Amino acid sequence: MGESKKIEIMDTTLRDGEQTGGVSFVPREKLMITRLLLEELKVDRVEICSARVSNGEFEAAKMICDWAARRNMLHKIEVLGFVDGKQSVNWIQQAGGRVINLLCKGSLKHCEKQLNKTPEEHIADILTVVNHAAETDIEVNVYLEDWSNGMKDSPEYVYQITDALQHTGIKRFMLPDTLGILNPLQVIEFMRKMIRRYPNLH
User: Which ranges carry the Pyruvate carboxyltransferase domain (predicted)?
Assistant: First the structure.
């Protein structure tokens, strides 16, 4: 019998972004929703906020991290962070968090047009954050933002960035279809390419 596989569910309801236009939660609402997601629905992980957004988000993150730590669930609490040197990692650490979901550029277009950087420069910046996270005992997952367009238009860039990051201790590589452009067959095709090239990455 083959090795069993587990599907992990990470809920992003609490991270106020495009998917929740016009919606924001106060800290106590965020804590209540986190408790329901983890204790009632049994989701594996919850992304509770973006780092460095506001004092309100910081207070909510502190409240949730304190609650989770007392229930041995702190490893299930994640915060979206940015390639900004030490700033996001320090913000998460001060809030009591242990996991950063690091937002990196998953397409050459985003790297060059949004950041005005070469792939090599972006990789160096990512490694600075990853190394600082390791020094502060913060676990790192990586989002390859716009990965779907990256696989369509610049797969060599996707491979370059993943090659550079695969041995750094990053726990998960998250591959979003940021703009919702892929059909199911394309998802299968591109995921197969990634799995074949990186069979040991999570």
Answer: 7-202
In 10 A of CB 45, how many CB atoms?
A: 21
Q: Which of 47, 57, 78, 145 is catalytic?
A: 145
135 in catalytic set: no
Q: DSSP alpha helices (H): ranges in the chain?
A: 27-35, 55-70, 87-95, 108-109, 119-135, 147-153, 155-165, 184-197
Does the reported pTM lie above 0.90? yes
Q: Is 15 part of the annotated catalytic residue set?
A: yes
Domain final residue, candidates 35, 60, 95: 95
List pLDDT tens digits, range 139-152. 999 999 999 999 99
Residues 102 and 200 in one domain: yes
Q: Which residue among the candidates 3, 15, 52, 156 is catalytic per the annotation?
A: 15
Number of domains the chain contains: 2
Return d(Cα 62, Cα 95) in angstroms, integer.
Answer: 5
Helix (H) or strand (E) holding 49, with range, is strand 45-50
For residue range 25-36, list pLDDT tens digits in order.
889 999 999 999
Query: Same structural domain for residues 200 and 104?
Result: yes
* Domain assignment of residue 91, given as a range: 1-95
